[in-house]
Design a protein that fits this description.
This protein is of the alpha+beta class. Helix content is about 30%, strand content about 25%. It has a domain of about 250 residues: Penicillin V Acylase, Chain A, CATH 3.60.60.10. β5 and β6 form a beta hairpin.
């Protein structure tokens, strides 16, 4: 029986932006095309900090001061992605300092954003009906940012073309590239966070990788501020979870043709540095539910993965997440889009909003 729910229904597919040029020009084109989304996401971020002041004791001015500590590390290692942010700033006519806060939000709030609902999974050709490599991701985030979702097709001279999802003024980081690399990111909570390269910029670099090894080197780059779990897939069928913190990492290969991840560490060495693991119950329920569902079928298709993304076991804290109203503004979240990437055919199927209430549309690389 379907749980009772209220979900925003989108009558149109999420916007697709096509950009080409230098990194700065790419940013400028994104900023110009998505000016409304960029400004709206900054407004939402300001409101979030204002409403969470009791918990964070952080003003927007204070957040700018904090984010300025992280930017030099990114500038030194990845100046091209700082140029992309500067381009977005110019194209959308917003302050670079404001965009820096947005792209370092998890760091400047010290991970007080308790957004622990993303679900990622993948299957390779040994478990698909047509021999394709399939990757799925539910992006769970603040419901106010759902209207700012878009996809971007990026072509620069020094990286393979890629197609990725993002929202507002965030650099894109969840998607796939022409070299056969796909990435999904799941927030995890290490205790060794430090000032360094923000996670969003680390994961943006992965989309520029030519090989799995190069992608992993990007994920574990020195002087990173913290880390995600990076679900990495290659069109050869190689699958990995790469669990990362500021100072440690673990590479977990998908030896049975599958990988699944949510928002807690799986590797025992990484679990030893996990922040308050006793609170991370819902993520474990989603993990084991997704693991069970993916192993119930050895002939997966795009549609079977979409069915997993719509699952409501443990509702509302389910794979298809409907938690919108909580006591704390830091705990408000829902599934704002669901993606299935066919890495073999180079196509992303994206449902804008909860996948139980919205249709999937194809976007081609």
């Amino acid at each position: 029986m379907q749980p009772e729910q209220k979900s925003l229904v989108h009558t149109n597919p999420a916007p697709l932006i096509t950009v080409k040029g230098t990194h700065r020009q790419v940013g400028q084109q994104i900023g110009e095309a998505c000016r409304e989304q960029v400004n709206h996401s900054l407004e939402n971020a300001r409101i979030l900090l204002d409403s969470a002041y009791t918990d964070l004791e952080l003003t927007w001015k204070g957040a700018i001061i904090q984010s300025r500590k992280y930017i030099p590390f990114a500038q030194e290692r990845y100046p091209q992605y700082i140029e992309e942010l500067e381009g977005i700033s110019e194209g959308a006519n917003v302050g670079f300092d404001d965009l820096a806060v947005l792209n370092a939000m998890e760091a400047v709030t010290m991970d007080a954003l308790h957004l622990t609902k993303c679900t990622s999974l993948a299957v390779n050709q040994s478990l698909t009906a047509d021999g394709s490599v399939l990757v799925a991701h539910n992006e769970d985030w603040l419901p106010e940012d759902e209207s700012d979702v878009y996809l971007v097709h990026v072509e620069t001279e020094d990286e393979p073309p890629f197609l990725a999802m993002t929202y507002g003024g965030l650099l894109p980081n969840i998607g796939m590239n022409e070299a056969g690399i796909a990435q999904c990111c799941d927030t995890v909570y290490p205790t060794d966070s430090r000032i360094g390269i923000p996670r969003v910029i680390v994961s943006r670099a992965v989309l520029g990788a030519q090989t799995p090894a190069e992608a992993i080197r990007c994920m574990v780059i020195p002087h990173r501020a913290a880390g995600y779990n990076h679900l990495l897939a290659h069109d050869s069928g190689e699958l990995y979870n790469v669990e990362v913190s500021a100072r440690s990492f673990a590479i977990l290969p998908g030896m049975d043709g599958t990988v699944v991840h949510t928002n807690h560490y799986l590797d025992p060495r990484m679990q030893a540095i996990e922040y308050e693991p006793d609170e991370l119950i819902d993520t474990r329920v989603r993990y084991f539910r997704a693991l069970r569902l993916i192993h119930q079928n050895n002939m997966h298709t795009v549609k079977t993965l979409q069915a997993i993304q719509r699952d409501h076991v443990n509702f509302p804290d389910s794979i298809c997440n409907h938690t919108e109203q909580e006591d704390s503004p830091l705990d408000r979240e829902k599934t704002i889009n669901a993606m299935v990437m066919d890495l073999t055919e180079r196509v992303i199927y994206l449902a804008w909003g909860n996948p139980c209430a919205n249709s999937y549309y194809p976007y081609y690389l």
